[in-house]
Amino acid sequence: MVLGLGAALGAAVLFGVGAILQAVGSRKVPTESELDPRRLGGFVVALLRQPAFLGALALNLAGFGLHFVALRLLPLYLAQAGIAVSLVVTALLATRLMSDKLSTLEWSAVIGVCVGLGLLAVAAGDAGASAQHHGLTIGIIVGLVVIAVLGAVASRSQHGVSTALLGMLAGLGYAGVAISARLLQDGSMSELVRSPTLYTLPISGALAFILYSLALQRGSVTLATTPMIALQTITPAAVGVFVLDDAVRAGWWPAAIAGFVLSAAGSVILVRFESVKPPDDKP
Fold first, then answer.
1. Cβ neighbour number for residue 16 with a 10 Å cutoff
2. Residue of 168, 203, 207, 216 lying closest to 21 (CA atoms)
3. What is the mean pLDDT of residues 117-127?
4. Which end of the chain has fewer CB atoms surrounding its CB within 10 Å, N or C?
5. Residue 98 DSSP symbol
6. What is the pTM of this model?
7. CA-CA distance, 223 to 160, in Å (whole number)?
8. What is the model's pLDDT at position 258?
9. pLDDT digits (tens, 9 = 90+) for 153-202
10. Biggest alpha carbon–alpha carbon distance for the chain
11. Which domain of life is it from (predicted)?
12. CB-based contacts of 29-37 (< 8 A; 24+ apart in sequence)
């Protein structure tokens, strides 16, 4: 439990800093980019030409390594709530580096995320065993196809609705990462190579990363990030409890629910700190 929670908090720090760089880098790429197979290569190349985006990519990859450890050791609801601390990191960095100020509500959100995570840590039981679940694996594969198709449609619009839809789809993609990491089986290399979740895991992450970058181009960071945070937190938590046998300590269900709600609500309030103005703008 201690190792898993430490890994989740370490990942949150890396994700919090990476979100700032991703927002800056994504907005320097022309907004006519869309999720079209004929243009996807050019879009990715354009992103990789941005130093800020490369920094975000490096931090997200390192953060995922720690997040993967947390997903294997903790119940999914606790691992995902731990990642929500990334928004607290971003908010506190913004107050130091950008002379931003936290309102009373936002300071309450910071406290709420921390208290909620503490309640979840105390209430958490054992993580369910990493067992094969063919139905869930097929669901992830079908879901990825649907996410890609809807993302391609949404990316053709500059309307605010497309920003929210792309953010929502990105959240489902990141949920696929968490669930795939949990379904991945321990075993020999030959068994690992034959496991579908070995492939759904990176595909989910790459698709979610691209969709979120497209969302950041098209509208406010709040509109893009709020549905992403909500779905990447709630979806794996529900799957973990109802399908993968993640446990809550006997008698601690009210504390676990309260902790999860506090963490999720605080994260949504702090979403605005995912946005950073370009360096040549005044804070």
1. 24
2. 216
3. 90
4. C
5. S
6. 0.81
7. 8
8. 95
9. 988 877 778 889 999 999 999 999 999 998 887 766 777 788 888 899 99
10. 55
11. Bacteria
12. 29/213, 29/217, 31/158, 31/217, 31/218, 33/155, 33/214, 33/217, 34/152, 34/155, 34/156, 34/214, 35/148, 35/151, 35/152, 35/154, 35/155, 35/210, 35/211, 35/214, 36/152, 36/155, 36/156
Distance CA 283, CA 270 (A): 18
CA distance 188 to 209: 30
For residues 161-174, one letter each, b for 16 or more C-beta atoms within 10 angstroms of the residue's C-beta and e for the rest, the string is ebbbbbbbbbbbbb
Give 125's Cβ-side CA count (13 Å radius). Answer: 14
CA–CA distance, 204 with 141 (Å, rounded to integer) = 9
| Cα–Cα separations (whole angstroms), residue 35 to 145, 147, 219, 225 | 13, 11, 16, 18
Residue 179 identity (one-letter amino acid): I
**What distance in Å separates the CA atoms of residue 211 and residue 123, rounded to the nearest whole number?**
34
Hey, what are 164's tokens? 């929210």
Of 24-28, 50-54, 176-180, 260-264, the range with the lowest mean pLDDT is 24-28
Amino acid present at 22: Q
Q: Are 155 and 166 in contact (CB under 8 A)?
A: yes
Rounded CA-CA distance 121/119 in Å is 5
Evaluate if residue 234 carries a pLDDT over 50.
Answer: yes
Task: State the Cα–Cα distance between residues 139 and 147, nearest whole angstrom.
Answer: 12
Q: CB burial class (10 A; 0-12, 13-18, 19+) of residue 250?
A: exposed
Alpha helices in the chain (DSSP H): 2-26, 37-48, 51-73, 76-83, 85-97, 104-123, 134-154, 160-183, 189-193, 197-218, 221-242, 253-269
